[in-house]
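User: Second chain of the day. Same drill as before.
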Amino acid sequence: MTETEQLAAVFERLGAARTQAQTMAAQLLRRAEQLAVERGTTREAELARLLSLATQGHGGVLPADFVPAPRPTPRQ
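Assistant: Same format as last time:
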């Protein structure tokens, strides 16, 4: 089973439809890679952090240190 398939299975267990779970898994992996480069950390550490955020968010809980990404300003 690939990493993407494993993550998709987690999202399916959290209630996502199969196609949505696959999309979410791919996005989570891609974002973990981006954050690892930006922060100088490992991909695995970022993946663990993002997966923790996703599962906590599913339960309606966010860590106190969570800072959402700034929203882009709309073009006029």
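The chain has one domain: 3-58.

User: Great, on to the next one.
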